[in-house]
Amino acid sequence: MEQIADDFVDHYAIGGETGKAMLVCIDKITCVRMQEIILGKWKDKIAALKKTCEKLADEQAIMDMERKLASVHETIMAVVVSEEREKLKVP
Questions:
Q1: Handedness of CA 81, 35, 75, 13 (dihedral sign)
Q2: What is the tens place of the pLDDT at every residue in 22-81?
Q3: Is residue 87 predicted with pLDDT exceeding 70?
Q4: What's the CA gap between 91 and 88, in Å, rounded?
Q5: What share of the chain is helix, strand, coil (3-state, %, to 5)?
Q6: Number of other CB atoms surrounding residue 8 within 10 Å
Q7: Do 42 and 13 touch, CB atoms closer than 8 A?
Q8: pTM score
Q9: What is the dihedral of CA 44, 49, 51, 53, to 10 degrees?
């Protein structure tokens, strides 16, 4: 779960991807655990991006990093649970 969360955060925080994403889990408990792990790693990524921004000297690089930071700060995450479907009975 940790590696999946790392990959998820790297892809969406650093990769510059915008839009929506969905992570499907096997059950509700796993989904909530994944969200907790991802949120922790997301906060760590924000702190790392801030430190990187402070070290930059190039004005264009600073502007690019500030854009990434703004995008990461605006990201909203939620767990969505759909209704359970009746299991199909196979004769």
A1: negative
A2: 888 988 899 999 999 999 999 998 898 889 888 888 898 888 888 888 888 888 888 888
A3: no
A4: 10
A5: 65, 0, 35
A6: 17
A7: yes
A8: 0.76
A9: -170
